[in-house]
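Batch 3, record 17
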Amino acid sequence: MIDVKGLKKSFGEIDVLKGIDEHIEKGEKVVIIGPSGSGKSTFLRCLNLMEKPTAGEILFEGKDITKLHEKEIDRVRQRMGMVFQHFNLFPHLTIRKNITLAPVKLGLMTKEEADVKAEELLKRVGLPDKADEYPTRLSGGQKQRIAIARALAMNPEVILFDEPTSALDPEMVGEVLELMKQLADAGMTMVVVTHEMGFAREVASRVLFMADGYVMEQNTPKEFFENPQNPRLKEFLSKVLV
Amino acid sequence: MGFIDSFKQNFIEADRWKYLWDGLLTTLEITGAAVLLGLFLGFIIAIVRCTYLKTGKMKLANILCRIYLTVIRGTPVVVQLLIIYFVVFASVNISKTFVAIIAFGINSGAYVAEIVRGGIMSIDNGQIEAGRSLGLNYRQTMTYIIMPQALKTVLPALANECIVLLKETSVAGYIAIADLTKGGDIIRSQTFSPFLPLLSVAAIYLVMVMFLTFLVGKLERRLSANDRR
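Prediction for the assembled complex:
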């Protein structure tokens, strides 16, 4: 579904991604781990062109999206959901409006259809009674579940998760991971940048280790955690798996 | 001469109160129209500046806007008024009130632009990213997500700009417009008693400013109440 070829990204003098080749299949759950500054978030943000790559190709369903015009990029983004570390809910809108804004304004659904969809999604994320609340009234975990519902409202082909639990209080991490597991079981294609090793082990179909702007190693979760090859990965795992 | 006599002389005789009344109407007319023009110009300039700062587009328009901001904020409003009346519209026979509206509107636009730009830039970039990641284009993201939030934060500052403008129009007399200030001054020149006419003018401004300030305070309280919902 997504093909990445020779992807490079620099911010000024700093080379963050130094050449990444990757292939993501439909239905795959790819989890990316690595030390901070390794480029994993930048890689994720390049996939929906939140960051413009400096070099390389990103093929989404066979089309190189790095060469597209602004309008076509918007259309690609409609089919790639994104969930952010800091939720980024719209504070001036009710939860219902947060979910329905994009599908309605983009002309994909009527207001009525979108409202029905929102009800359905709120039930799915376990917050059916919050439709008329404003985001400030929700806990961090609830906010992130709404952010996931907002992404789902667009019926995306794939959802990109950028450290979705890093800004949460520890007791709220579980509810968000649980919801992500449900999504995974339902067959959603997911690319997840996270520090949650348990989630990687349990849900990932493939785990990628990034460091210094490269994908250093990748494998099935079992092999990845039990039999790491790269010395950097061994060192990283020894620090995070205590 | 007692207060009663002085009052009669300054306001009752020869219907002199009309100078103040007509002047007040002129002041309100100029202020109201200039506020609208200032908001219109200010918003356009703020959007151009922010679009450039956030996307790098509209480079030329941004340069023009910066020149405008520098010149308008770097020169006194009286000088701008005189230039627009005696230089720009020198050869055109045009209503002085209209000239004043243009001058004060252009002047206010520069300050409004900076207020609104500050408001837009204060909104977290994550809000734009959230909008864009859903497939909304830049304009839709600005219209439905950024502007409503920015507007809420800058509303009190914009209201204060209106109050400032109301007082600034008192220099309209420089191009012989009979506004409120000029009205009081005309009475003074006729009766040779400066005390009552000028203090009345000051009192009228003060009452209007206090009333508007009261409204701004109410507005601020309502906005902050919304934050706690």
